[in-house]
Structure formats: structure tokens, C-alpha cells
Amino acid sequence: MFLDELKKRNVPRLKSRAEMLELLQREEYGCLPKAPESFVWEAEPGVADNFCAGKATLEKLTFRVVVNGKDFAFPVYLAAPTAEGAHPFFVHINFRSDVPDRYMPTEELIDNGFAVLFRSAMRM
């Protein structure tokens, strides 16, 4: 009876959860690109000895994706606390070539239990 009344009043049908999610994403962020064909990463551990006075390790990670048959690589660095347990992390995009950057508060973040994933604007 309720649905008949909605039809009679020409109320548009409600969209499904998936349709609403797609609509909100498109309106907020634009059209999403298709997922890459592959995504892998490799780590180069021990980039710096005694990083943050031994409170963290510094690794160079290389993310590799294949999109439309083309291979792309993104080098990033991960400073992770040596303390046990899971650590939330900050993503920092660096606009200077130094890794780590002297102006980036990496050690302060490590001291507070966070990891830092950062990328330099220039090639390493």
C-alpha cells in the first residue's frame, strides 16, 4: 500500500546502497580510474643506520603498478618505530629533495608511536 502511494505521487525510486556510494564518490571526487592490473611492492631495508637514535628503522619501498599495460614505480620511504605493536602512520609528501628532511618532524612522530611514510619530490 505504501509503495502504491509513492508510485501514485511519482516519488522517484530510492537508489541501492551501491548506486548511492558510486554517486557520492563521483560527485565528491570525480570519476575513479579503473583498478590497476597489478600492484606489488618491494622493500630495501636498512637504508640508514641508527635512524632516530635507534627508535626507528628506515626502509625504502618501491610500489609498482601496471595500468593499461604500462609499468609505473613510486619510491617512498617508511620510518617505522622499533617498538612492538601496530603503529598508525602519517603520509608526508616532501617538496625538498632531502630524505629525511630536516624540517619534517619524523622523530617527534616516532616518539609518539606513529610511523611516517614519505616521498621526496625529486628522484633519489
Description:
The structure is a single chain. With 124 residues, the chain is an alpha+beta fold. It contains three helices and five strands; from the N terminus they run ααββββαβ. The chain has a five-stranded mixed beta sheet with strand order 1-2-3-5-4. The radius of gyration is 23 Å and the shape is elongated. The chain starts with a helix and ends with a strand. The model has no long low-confidence stretch (mean pLDDT 84).
Mean pLDDT: 84
User: Which regions have little confidence, pLDDT < 50, spanning 5+ residues?
Assistant: none
Helix tally?
A: 3
Q: How are the strands of the biggest sheet laid out side by side? A: 1-2-3-5-4
Structural class, judged by helices and strands? Answer: alpha+beta
Report helical residue fraction. Answer: 10-25%
Amount of beta strand? 25-35%
Give the SSE map.
Elements: H1 2-8, H2 17-29, E1 38-44, E2 56-67, E3 70-81, E4 89-94, H3 106-111, E5 115-120
Parallel strand pairs: 4-5
Antiparallel strand pairs: 1-2, 2-3, 3-5
Quickly list its features:
alpha+beta; single chain; 5 strands
